[in-house]
Amino acid sequence: MPDQATDEEPDAAPRTLTPAERIVPSWTDPLAAAATRPLGGPLGEHAAIGRHWFWSPQRVGLAVAMLALVLCWFGKASCIQQYTDSSGTNQLDWRAGRPFVAMCYSDIVPLYSSERLNDPHTFPYVSSWKEDTQTAENQTRYMEYPVVSGLFQWVNAKLAAGWLSLADSGWLPGALPVAIYFDISAFWLALAWLVTVWATGRTMKRRPWDALLVAASPLVLVHAFTNFDAIATAFTAAGLLAWSRRRPEVAGVLLGLGAATKLYPLFLLGVLFVLCLRAGKLRAWGRTALFTVLAWLVVNVPFILVATRGWWEFFRLNTLRPMDPDSLYNAFSYATGWTGFDGVLQKGQTPTWLNIVVAVLFLACCAGIAYIGLTAPRRPRLGQLAFLVVAAFLLTNKVWSPQYSLWLVPLAVLAIPRWRLLLGWMVLDALVWAPRMFYYLGTDHKGLPEGWFLGTVVVRDLAVIGLCVLVIREIYRPRTDLVRLSGDDDPAGGVLERTRDRVRLPGFRGRPSRAAHAAPRRAESP
C-alpha cells in the first residue's frame, strides 16, 4: 500500500536541514509563546534564525540541563551533610528522618555501604557477604545491579578512595567517604543526562528546541541523582540517534550496553522489529539485534563464567521482589482489600502469581502495540511505539521506582512534543516524590498515611495512560501528529523514513492524511 511513497529515494541519506526549516516553538506552541513574553515575545517573522555565533538550540538545551542538574544536586546535598557525635567521630547526618523530611533521599548514599563498596577488598559479583534480608535470614548476598550499573558503582568507589588518599596528603578537600562517592557518582550521572539531552535534540532534526523539555524536565530536578538510571537513558537516546542516522550496528551496540545497565532498552528491539517488518527492512533490524546481543554478551559473559551466582543475583532478587508501594497492584490491593497477589509472603517465598500476572499483562500490551504498529493507516513513528512499550512496562510492572519515570522523558518528547501536556505530566509525576517521602517517614513521625500516597500514584498512572491514549490517537489520525504536520515522516526512523510499506495487517480502514507531508505551518501569535 503506497501510503508513504514520496519522490525522494527511500534509502537516500537524510538531508541536513537549514536553520530556516526548523520548527519555532514560539510560533507553534502556546506555552512556548507565553514563556517568551518576558523576553520580547515570539520570534519575529523576519528574524534571522540560526545565525548566532554560539547559542544554537543544542547549546541552549545543554545549558538549561546543566542548571537543572545543579538544582538537583543542591536538592540532594542535604543528605550528605555530616555531624560530630559524642565520641568526636564524623557521621552522616540522617537523624530525625532527614532523608524523608528534607526529601533528599538518594539510593546512591545507602548503597555505598549496603553493596559493600566501602570495603576496598570487594569486587562486584565475585565478593559476597551475609545479610538478614526480607527474603531470608543470614542470606548470602552479592551486587544486586546489572553489570554496567554494578561496575559503575565500583569504579566510583575506587575514585572516591583515591580522592581520600589525596585529601589525606593535603592536595584536595576532604569529607566523609560516602559524600565524596555521591559527588563523583553525581558528576558522571550529570554527564549521562547531558548526553541524553544532546542525543534527543539531534534526533528531533526539525524540532531541536523540543530537547528543552528533556533538559528542564521537573523529573530531572528530583530524580537525576536518585539512582543510576541516567546512564541507561544516555545509552538509549544515543542508540536512537545512531538508528536515525542509519547506523544500525552502532545503535545495536548502544542498546546492548543500555540493556546491560537497565532492562528497558531491550524492549526497543521489539519496536524496531514491528516497524522494520512493516517496511520490509528486516535486514537492518537483524544487524541491530545482532550487535545488541553481542554488546550485551561481551559485558556479561565474563561474569557469567567467573561469578555465575553473583551475576544471577539481580534476576533472583527481581523474581523474589513483592509488589512495590508505587505499583498499581498495591493500590488495587489497598483499595479493595484483596490479597490475591500471593497474599502475605514469608521470607524466601516467591510471589509466583504476581509474577505471572505481570508477565501476562505486559505481553498482552506488547501484542496490542504490535497490532497497532501493523494496522495503523500509516506506519507509526519509532518514538511513538517506543514510548508506548516502555509506558506499558512501567504500568504493568510490580515495581515502579520513582526514578524510572526518567526513562519516559526523552521517549515522550519524541512521541508527542506538546509542551503544555508533557510539562503537566512531568510536574505531576515529580510531585509524587513528596507524598512518597512522607509516607516512608511513617505516621508515627507525622508522615502521611498510605492512602494519600497511593492516591497520587493512581493520578500519576492515569496521566501516563492518558498520554498513551493520545499517542494511539495520533497514530491512527496522522493529521493530528505535530511531527508529521511539520513535514517530517519519522525523524528517528533512519532506514524507515519515507519508505513504502511491505507488510500491513487488515484492521483499521483509514487513509493517511495529505497534511502529513505538508509544509510547516505557523501558529497565530497569541
UniProtKB/TrEMBL annotation:
One of its GO terms (molecular function) is hexosyltransferase activity. InterPro entries: GT87, UCP010361. Residues 493-526 are annotated as: Disordered. The chain crosses the membrane at residues 60-83, 178-199, 211-244, 250-277, 289-307, 352-376, 421-440, 452-472. Keywords: Cell membrane, Membrane, Transferase, Transmembrane, Transmembrane helix. GO terms for cellular component: plasma membrane. Signal peptide: none annotated. Belongs to the glycosyltransferase 87 family. This is Uncharacterized membrane protein. It comes from Amycolatopsis saalfeldensis.
